[in-house]
Amino acid sequence: MTAGQLALVATLAVPAGGAAATALIPAGREAAARLTGTAAAAVAFLASVLLVLGGRDAGWFAYAPALPRVRPWHAVRADWAPGLDLSFHLGVDGISYPLVVLTTLLTLLCCAYTTQRAPAGGRASRLIALLLVVEVGILGTFLALDLVLFFVFFEVVLLPMYAVIAIWGGPQRRAAARKFVLYTLFGSVLLLVGVFTVVAAAGTADLVALTGGDQLGRGVQLGAFTLFALAFAVKAPLWPLHTWLPDAHTEAPTVGSVILAGVLLKMGTYGLIRIGVGVTPEGAAWAAPVLGVLAVAAILVGALVCLAQTELKRLIAYSSVGHMGFVLLGIATLTTTGIQAALIGNIAHGLITGLLFFLVGAVKERAGTGELARLGGLRERAPVLAGVLGFAAIASLGLPGLAGFWGEIFAVVAAFQRGGAWVVLGVLAATGAALTAAYFLRLLRRVSHGEPAPAPAGMAPLARVEVVAWAPLVVLTLAVGLLPALVLAVAYDPVTALLGAAG
Questions:
Q1: Which of 168, 185, 332, 334 is most deeply packed, by most CB within 10 A?
Q2: Angle at 499 between CA 227 and CA 479, to 5 degrees
Q3: What is the pLDDT of residues 135-194, one digit of tens each?
């Protein structure tokens, strides 16, 4: 086994082992349990970063032999259910790699944050263990090269995320958690039927062999893509199947919202690229105009709803609907530029919205409320916090030079490149970007520059763990904004290969 394959296995195995170890440490050793979980998250992050180095498994790129410049990645495979021709097949390429690193980074930051700023409701070590289990499910989804294995990992996140919301969440946490589960189970049923349809028709669950759709007839592809698109739309979530998201975000603890927005939503858009476009390309081409219209509707509706929001956390939650709309628009164009826009939009949203939810948690903890009308004058009471919030807000509205800009502009450019009615969709999406700027500027005016509200007890200076959790996200938001090639360079060849195989 090569060093790269060891890193691949460690990326998934370490958080799984860390979750078990953390949960088994008795209550009397709470500090040791928290440290164990955080250490496991740190090792998983290091292993994920090392995936970019060394080794080559050419079989992972067997569907694109004409692309000699594909970067060397890694894959491991073992029999899982030989009688059913199922394998425990994991691999990483430039499409999944940025999302894998984002997942391990955000999980590490959330675990470190929880060691010092644990929410009420239960032992912090149990929360860290659940976050690690969620990490395993998300990473497995991004790394799975077997369609049935993809489904299994896709479902792993359901119960631990339910527990995170239901145990450590706000006053309406149980209702929000139930709503999250019901919506997700609805999507899971559709995904399972889609997986069964593809595997039964093709006779294999191997994603490498399935990529390009050569083993599937047109009718199977149309039906399977419809099922996949609906299932992934629920998870993303994409309008109009998004209504579980604001409640889940509003009631979830800070770290739950960070993981939920930062990486869990990306399971849906990643699945749409890897499986929807890759495995059922004819279905994707058939549904592309409908997806484009829904994407633009999500951008506009999300922005308009945000303009009417009066609660800080719900506003940030609804903003994800609009940002995921830009990601869907990029995917719907079925062009290299559009898929690249979706990938960098995913990363930018994870960094920026993860940071925003950390900041919203800090504001609500200090002010005792998330109501915009009662949060005026933050720059006088907590100038550093107000400054970082301002940075995150202008990054999210798509200011050039910051990470949020590239996904939006590339999605619009990709729509213009398609021509025809897509130009209209591009213009409407650009209008939605202007509305995004409007609601974030409204947020800053209300929270940072409004009339100072009475300073409640607990308007404390920033804690060290908060600086540690926020700083990497600030730095990476700036780095990706100035050097988008950090994401785009590793993804270009795999995206071209995927679309070439799908073509």
A1: 332
A2: 100
A3: 999 999 999 999 999 999 999 999 999 999 999 888 888 888 888 888 888 889 999 999
Owner of token pair 């970007």? 433
CA distance 353 to 139: 19
SS3 89: strand
| Dist CA 275 CA 286 (whole Å) | 15
DSSP 123-177: -HHHHHHHHHHHHHHHHHHHHB-BHHHHHHHHHHTHHHHHHHHHHHS-TTHHHHH
How many other C-beta atoms can be found within 10 angstroms of the C-beta atom of residue 310? 12
With b for 16 or more beta-carbon neighbours within 10 A and e for fewer, the 43-54 pattern comes to bbbebbbbbbee
Closest Cα to residue 284, out of 297, 275, 293, 296? Answer: 275
Cα angle for residues 130, 112, 315 (degrees, 5° grid): 75
* Alpha helices, DSSP H, located in 335-484: 336-367, 378-381, 383-396, 404-418, 421-447, 464-482
Torsion of CA 400, 378, 110, 106, to 10 degrees: 0
How far is Cα 44 from Cα 100, in angstroms, rounded to an integer?
A: 10
Gap between the Cα atoms of 401 and 337, Å rounded:
19
Residue with token string 């080794």? 55
Please tell me the pTM assigned to this model.
Answer: 0.91
Identify the CA nearest to 41 among candidates 12, 71, 5. Answer: 12
